[in-house]
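cron nightly-structures :: item 1 of 1
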Amino acid sequence: MRLINKDNIEIVDVFIRLYGELIEDIAPHYKGDIVFKNLPADENEYHDIMGRVGNVIYHSEVEVGKIGLSDTEVLAALAHEIGHIVYNTRGWQQDQEERADSFAAELGLGAQMISAIEKIISSRRYHKLTSLLVGRIHFLQNMIRV
């Protein structure tokens, strides 16, 4: 697996440095490239924080700032998006989101993922998905409970 920071996004460099080797240990079955690119504001009509198309993860620094995500919460969100790629999940179904969340938790970013989801809920930007987001928090809380 290769992690490619196409647009030289600083937080992605941090992510690759901290978690690049560990990702390969967690998902040895995934052999493809994962590419990270900026999501420019003029191409982000839905004001997404992050998203992915195929093996490309798009990151919007503007929208991350509007929500107020910390660097560690952004790292968790990046891990979540990588989880979608390595586990080949699509859509907003609860089980698929939880599978991607589990990848972040496996990297030790479960608490940070919970915090990021709480900020997303507070922002009200995805108010129709609140019950799904709350369910994801409960899943992660159960997963990281020792």
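cron nightly-structures :: done
The two ends are 31 Å apart (CA to CA).
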